[in-house]
Amino acid sequence: MTLSIDSPDPTWIISDDLIPYPKAQSFMDQRVAEIQCNTAPETLWLLEHFSLYTSGTSAKSHDLLDRNRFPVFNTGRGGQYTYHGPGQRIAYAMLDLNKRKRDIRCYVHALEDWLIHCLQHFNVKGERREGRVGIWVVTDSGEKKIAAIGVRVKKWVTMHGISLNVEPDLSHFDGIVPCGLGDFGVTSLLDLGITASISDVDLALQQSFHEVFG
């Protein structure tokens, strides 16, 4: 299966400043509408948010353990509760599956491959796990989640995307049950002993995107 197309490369936006979540949501809504009308190119946006929690369409209220710790935003993406904050690189992907492949399962699989290829740049083996969303690594203290995936598709144009833990404060995940998986921990590149910068990760994300999506 492939999601590559014979058309100009997507536009990349790289933000160095922390982006408020409502600003990101507003931009995605507008850009997706423009892509649907063929007035804007596919877009990949790399950014970091201020510390916050988001809830997906499958979120369960009891998985929000500390309602007062950070702002909580409801989203239209799939999945449950997740944390976003400084030190975590997010890639919002606004891609036209009408031109690639109208197959959401294939698209999610490609996002997983994107993260796995990106982690290979840092000699980290990222893996899928049946029944568990995201990308996982095996550590001395068990399997831990290093990256999350959450997507929404409007008229076959995607929004939201992936998040990779580079060097966030991992204690900030304590206010939720991440993705409803309370039996497993979270980790980051820094937690694994890898001192990669956000810029290093951005480069790896761009290179690995082309490896997976063409």
In brief:
The protein is built from three helices and eleven strands; from the N terminus they run βαβββββαβββββα. With 214 residues, it is α/β, with parallel strands linked by helices.
CATH topology: BirA Bifunctional Protein, domain 2
Query: Major sheet, described briefly?
Result: 8 strands, mixed
Please tally the β strands and state the result.
Answer: 11
Count of discrete structural domains: 1
Whole-Å distance between the termini?
A: 12 Å
Helix/sheet category = alpha/beta
SS summary, helix count:
3
The CATH homologous superfamily is termed: Bira Bifunctional Protein, Domain 2
Shape-level CATH architecture: 2-Layer Sandwich
Written account of the structure:
This protein is 23% helix and 32% strand. By secondary structure, the protein is an alpha/beta fold. It has a single domain (11-213), classed as Bira Bifunctional Protein, Domain 2 (BirA Bifunctional Protein, domain 2, 2-Layer Sandwich), CATH 3.30.930.10. The strands form two sheets. Strands 1, 2, 6, 7, 8, 9, 10 and 11 form an eight-stranded mixed sheet that branches. A three-stranded mixed sheet has the order 4-3-5, with no helix packed on it. α2 (104-120) packs across α3.
